[in-house]
User: Fold these one by one.
Assistant:
Number 1:
Amino acid sequence: MPVYSISHVENVRVCVVMVGLPARGKSLISQKIVRYLSWLSIKSKCFNVGNYRRQIATMPIEVDAKFFDPNNEEGLKYRQQAIDLAIDDMMRWFSDEQGVVGILDATNSTRARRETILKLCRENYIEPMFLESFCDDQDLVLQNILDVKTTSPDYVSKPQDYAMKDFLQRIEYYNQIYEPMDAVTDSELTFIKLVNVNSQIILNRIESYLESRIVYYVMNLHIKPRCIWLSRHGESEFNVTGQIGGDSNLSTRGWRYAKKLPELVLKSLGPDAQHTNLTVWTSTLKRTQQTASFLPYKKKLQWKALDELDAGECDGMTYEEIEQKFPEDFKARDDDKYEYRYRGGESYRDIVIRLEPIIMELERQENILIITHQAVLRCLYAYFMNVPQHESPWMSIPLHTLIKLEPRAYSTLVSRIKADIPAVSTYKEKGTSQLGESVEGMSSKSRDLISASAES
Ligand SMILES: *[C@@H]1O[C@H](CO)[C@@H](O)[C@H](O)[C@H]1NC(C)=O
Ligand SMILES: *[C@@H]1O[C@H](CO)[C@@H](O)[C@H](O)[C@H]1NC(C)=O
Ligand SMILES: *[C@@H]1O[C@H](CO)[C@@H](O)[C@H](O)[C@H]1NC(C)=O
Ligand SMILES: *[C@@H]1O[C@H](CO)[C@@H](O)[C@H](O)[C@H]1NC(C)=O
């Protein structure tokens, strides 16, 4: 049984309506909210009006800045068609696919337009929540245009300086009719207004629990470039004997990895190594702290939330022993590894719940190195890489490998550095108690990780 599904608790549906001029990071925020909520098992989806516009195949006119001139009737007609398509799709998704949080990623620059969507939501018992990204810091806007807009599908075959100029003109057209959200005029509406990312945040009439989760999440977002490094602890004595759980010391090879880790981190930092102070997070278990013990960074934090999945009564057993002693449990876990909870222990879903504060803190922080355990790493990785829940428990995260994640506007870049120190495989395939790797039946994201480990 799911223990954590807001939709079941409240039976609430929310339509987040994005508001703001182009190049204010609306799409980025929308996608992050969807990734975060999906990771928490809350069904959510983004409906991007720009994508619908690009799909109107019959559109005979060129899409340059003039298309967005509020006096361009033909442009208006197609833009209206795109928004209608997006809204129809979203409403169908709410009703036919039991969607919980739909995000309408459009500009919604005038009050009259916001009124239409408000009415539609109310008629369908969906809570409308407006999320405005307001930004008058020109440097931020220009940076955003450079980061994402000049690579937008609208400008694929165009030179960059043309794209920049045309895009600024497009913003100007929107600006002519733009009416920002306002605490007085819009006092009846539920809205969040982010001013210059999060230097100021205005909240109005946030009512449901689900809305307040979204608020809390967007309040913690920042856009400073940074990286996150992930590593499992070095091979432990229990890994050598094939036992799970416990609080054992590192094996000899595990200690070798710990000694090598500072070098791997420097290599991964590259030319920035001298100027970067990482913060190191470990669990409260010995094997992660021992793995971090040679790192030169002063700031080290222990988190109970990063401890390994609690195997309850199976703690200290090998998979073979579990298969013999609790055959039904062994099978139940293979059948649904995400939901299966060890007797007196935890499931993957339980880990996701206890990791939520870690994710919030990670969003707030800059460069962090996390040394933790296989199951916990799988869940963290799934958040950043958007790996589906039924796959994440089966991903193989190799021992003795440093993983670097670089969050970018629309994706996260991954790179790995292997320590070249042998370790036992601790990967257990479905349907067996033997350890070893396989690559079938996975999405490309989780497959990547496995093949990277299998090549050693
Ligand atoms: C949201 O904004 C778009 C683009 O400005 C507009 O065409 C649309 O009508 C707005 N949504 C609604 C339903 O008012
Ligand atoms: C590696 O060993 C630790 C105990 O030291 C254990 O918690 C962990 O589950 C092991 N990994 C696997 C997947 O066997
Ligand atoms: C782990 O190492 C410490 C210090 O070397 C030792 O005192 C302790 O007994 C070891 N623990 C286990 C479980 O082997
Ligand atoms: C890193 O932190 C140490 C100790 O806190 C400090 O002495 C050092 O100057 C910092 N280095 C940089 C590049 O910030």
Note: The CA atoms of residues 189 and 241 lie 60 Å apart.
Number 2:
Amino acid sequence: MDIRKILELDHPTRVDLWQDCAEILERYFARVHETSVAPDVTPEEIRARLKPLDFSQPLDPQETVKLVVESLWNYQVHTPHPKYFGLFNPAPTTMGIVGDVIAAAFNPQVATWNHSPFAVELEQHLIRSFGVQFGYELDRVEGTFTSGGTEANHTAILTALERSFVEFAKEGTRGLTRQPLVYASNQSHHSFVRAARISGLGSDAVRQIEVDDNLRIRLGPLIEQIERDRAAGGAPFVIVANAGTTNAGVIDPIAPIAEVASQQGLWLHVDAAWGGAAAFLPELKYLFDGIERSDSITFDAHKWLSVPMGAGIYLTHHPEILRKTFRITAEYMPADAAELDAVDPYVQSIQWSRRFIGLKVFLSLAVAGWEGYRQVIRHQIAMGELLRQELQATGWKILNRTRLPLVCFVDQQNPEGRTEAFLDTVAREVVSSGKGWISVTRLDKNRPVLRACVTNFRTGPEDIRALVQGLGEARKKLSNHASEDL
Ligand SMILES: *Cc1c(COP(=O)(O)O)cnc(C)c1O
């Protein structure tokens, strides 16, 4: 056997495979809306399928691809489905899929400039373009592509630490006499707590500040907590402002928070992972006032911009701090790009070898243009409005206030309509009816609500109406059960 044919299959097989894949994907795109949005499956069922695959015999490539595709088709929540009203995971852009394929094939090593000058420059070009969209000054924008918002938020914590604690990089928390503290609302993403934990600060370092009736951080308690902590010997170093919370799509008042950060001498990080896309609309930009004053921003292209996962972006106004945070040298690293006036991505990122993440973002944006994206974002916001109207017209009560297409609601018609048990059952009924994928969450930790987010550019009025109909049927079924119980 020619060993070169073990890993790289021969030309005719490859051509057949590419063709097969293209046909499979086209079939999936054409049919996904007819597929049940969520599977009904047990771990045993899937494991039984995988068990015979013990890798003792090489399998046929086409058969193996077929097996995987069939299994994904049957056993996943279909985030590309227009009735997926879930957690920000979109239907992927065509150009994003193409980008991922090309990135895999050329496999550029984007750790260093000299290995992949085009890929590195393309990513830098994008970083600047996104920075400018958020109001950053062109010649001060720096940043890095990340696996997602979690890594971007972790990067924010690390850069903010670097700014405030010069000894941290070398000595770690051991070198600090005071406990570094992070401030964020109690609605902020759990990745900050995790970042605190894995940075060695510990989860107690995240001060979760209470919110007002609209779930926005309260400035009074924020300032009081900072001052109290400082008086007690703590070392506040960063404030996080949410620009579109995961729970309820809430945007904190960024400009006033920027004022607090500046008065207190703290780093301001804005977590705009999902909601940030709304800042690209001139008519909604006011919601993000002050974001241009932030020290850093998290944005996920794999959320509202519909780029395939994972495509996170970390942006900052402080290139020198970003580099100080991550620069380490080792013998095997190619010579520094500094003499070329170019950037080696590894000096400003948690990752070393990494995927050419920027390509799928670049191809999606280049082909849609900002204007294309604005149209899509507006459409999704309009679908969110329609959902709110249809829910209110049918006796559901909306509990979150946001312009973004994320709706948190409870049942007003049923005496049990605000209980977790009721809402859980409604969500389960809706999911199993195939009329939509929605979930249950809790606002300010204790108010259970149903949560539906227009995540998909394919979602149209008919999908919204089907969801509301499914909700109505679930509610009716539950009240019938309740009256039978009497
Ligand atoms: C999704 C999200 C994150 C985490 O991003 P991942 O890409 O899922 O790692 C962080 N913050 C907010 C507000 C998010 O919506």
Note: Residues 192 and 342 are 31 Å apart (CA to CA).
Number 3:
Amino acid sequence: MNITSSSFDMLVLRPLEALKSQQAFENVPILRSLESRYFLSAPFFGLVVFISYLTWLSSASTPVVKGPVAGYRSFWEPTFLLRLRFVFNAVGIMNDGYYKFKNSSYVVRRMDTDVTVLALKYLDELRKSGLDELNATHANIHNVLGGYTNLNEMKFNDHFIKAISHCLNPNINEFMKYMQDELSFSFKVDIPDFEGHEWKSIDIHSLLKRIISRVASRIMLGLPYCRDETIISITESHTICIFGVTLILRRFPPILHPLVALLIPHRWRIWRNIREMKKITQTILDEHSAAKASGDTSHKSTEPKTLLKWMIDNAKPHQKSLHSLVSTQLAVTVAAVYTSSQVTSHLLVFLAQNPRYIAEIRKEIADSTNDIENIDPSKLHKMEACLSETLRLNPPQTNAPQRRAMQDITLKDGVVIPKGALVAFPCTPCSMDSSIYPDPQQFIPFRKENISVPVTTPTRNQLAFGWGSQACPGRFLAAKEIKVVAARLLMEYDMEIAPEADKMRRYYDIEDLRVLNPSMRLRMRRRVLEA
Ligand code: HEM
Ligand SMILES: *[C@@H]1O[C@H](CO)[C@@H](O)[C@H](O)[C@H]1NC(C)=O
Ligand SMILES: *[C@@H]1O[C@H](CO)[C@@H](O)[C@H](O)[C@H]1NC(C)=O
Ligand SMILES: *[C@@H]1O[C@H](CO)[C@@H](O)[C@H](O)[C@H]1NC(C)=O
């Protein structure tokens, strides 16, 4: 707080004082003739700020691929209005471009930048040649204003992706065992007590965020650290804080970011999270090296495998600092927790609204195992179809995947993507296209039941996990995790949509993020199993 108010003082109040003093104007006749008192009066100042703001919003200084701009309601609509409308109607604007300019690329205007939505035909080219100059990490860093959210670290710490693809994915069955163990613990402590057979209203997303934070911490840090309340609360809150900073800063021109950033409470929390995480990580590092020094490689106190251990042992020298390790952990958390908890919540809300499908899914689970603490997600085909349908209707990011051009790129047909351009693909318009998915608005959980492509394999019509070599490295874990968590909740609890929630909006779109309505509630009760 001290820092903030004194910086405010230095950056804003003092220069204003200086300006206000008559001296500044005395030698300039024109200015002297303007009464400085009026010149600096609040309405005039306000007008100047307002006009500068609109000018900033109307300018299009970011590089884009040549193409039409989507979403203008008429020839007369000013650009600043189009940008403002994108905040709450991004999908509407992307749909406009998708249907109007079918098979060619178009531009959408976000408040902070223009984004080129590439035609789907370019997907093949992206996969075949790899096109590494179109970089997913740099697109993310740009989107979350890495400099203000500590995510610039992702530029130097590419092991946050390697930890997943070299440690987590090859050992996924082992990690699934830890996960199921952590779930048993979480169900005991995080789900409210149900006396007998009563119904309770449950904030489903908060519950799932907590459950999935525990699982993520277990995989990252292992026992016993993952049970630390501070860790869980960091894991739960970090992504929200990053969204907070991002969504506020995008409303302001970059020149004001350093100032505005100081005033955003979410940002204070990001830095607190980093400090707390460092303390705990230091403890783990000390124990890790003590265990190594004493030749005790069995690590009795902790899990044999964790992502953090892998990073400690495999990071390059410049990635081994405490700050690097903590930033990397938090980058994985940001990618993993919010996405999975949102998708699981959507899935359960859909099923609660369509209870006739629950029986079928329960039968599939019961047929696959009689040990609910040891589910094999690869046997749950109906559940997988249901997950795929949920991702089709409600992907966490509606214009995934996104890439940033690290240099000028010429595609095979001659189209040029200029250096610095942010490009995206029309994930949502395409998955809601009735020529691809009949009756697209309808939740048809088993729509893809007989399609042999797994949900983790991106296709032209299913881009929620991204595309090509840079697609989400955590998708194999995510799919298994969501299936197992949903399966256990469905086997142990009855669920129905709370009456007040049934008519509610299911989600809000804020720019390209799709967020479940935070007021969404499910009614749950403990199941009574017939003997
Ligand atoms: C339903 C859950 C999830 C969804 C929908 C999702 C979606 C995505 C998408 C669309 C991308 C960008 C891919 C591209 O540009 O082609 C991505 C990247 C990524 N995801 Fe996921 N993801 C999910 C869960 C997870 C989980 C559980 C983890 C971690 C274990 C994870 C880790 C990552 C990482 C590390 C990246 C790379 C970011 C970068 O390149 O900078 N994700 N994810
Ligand atoms: C778009 O491209 C696809 C495949 O190249 C083609 O089948 C389709 O007819 C095209 N649509 C339009 C509107 O040009
Ligand atoms: C994207 O950029 C990051 C950070 O500079 C780098 O580590 C990564 O290898 C790049 N990705 C590709 C596919 O080139
Ligand atoms: C999938 O195949 C089974 C068995 O042939 C059939 O009963 C079911 O209706 C099919 N599902 C869909 C969505 O087509």
Note: Confidence is low (pLDDT under 50) at residues 1-8, 18-25.
Number 4:
Amino acid sequence: MAVSHDLAAALARVRERIERACARAGRDSDEIVLVAVSKAHPVEAVRAAYAAGLRVFGENYAQELAAKAAALEDLSEIRWRFIGHLQRNKIKLVERSRATVDTVDTVRLAEAISSRAAARNVTVELLLQVNVAGEAQKSGCAPEELSTLVEAVRALPSVDLRGLMTVAPHTADPDDARPTFAKLRELAAAHALPELSMGMTHDLEAAVQEGSTMLRIGTALFGPRPDVTR
Ligand SMILES: *Cc1c(COP(=O)(O)O)cnc(C)c1O
């Protein structure tokens, strides 16, 4: 994050976009959690965002999450959400931060999270990631596999399945994401799941329109991500 980047002003602009989208959709913005996606930005950027009033942060890489959570333990109200692809051998890095895992897309991963959580006497909140548009390069279970996955995850003792998450295909017109978001909403309703994590910097208005309860916003808050090669 550039030192000159004014996080408070960026946050005000994002909140304004959310308020306007909510007004158009006839929704109350209190129903929507703003998840600040801090991946690739330094700990100081998270501190600035916390000081500006944000409490929920999203990270994509287990190692980076673990390091940031450890460095920011003094921020007593901070909450982490893991929104990247999680390998089973990295679960322990995520659990130290007490993050939710918003990207579960296999029974095997959910089982591994649950058994580790059981051993630690905790319950881990989960979302299931759905590849609604069936894009080859994207994670997430196919919509047709969701019922089986929901049933298996609900049977596990130490996870709390709260909802669904998706990343819409990137298109020039953000309104093109609406059918993807609408489909996720229908899938969640069919399984009585309350949370819908959908909508990013580019398409947050479309997501609000289609019922998002969690917006994952990076660029609009923190500016462009430094180019990191992984
Ligand atoms: C990086 C990322 C975001 C944030 O994207 P922006 O376009 O910067 O708002 C949201 N969700 C996921 C899964 C991401 O990987």
Note: The CA atoms of residues 22 and 28 lie 6 Å apart.
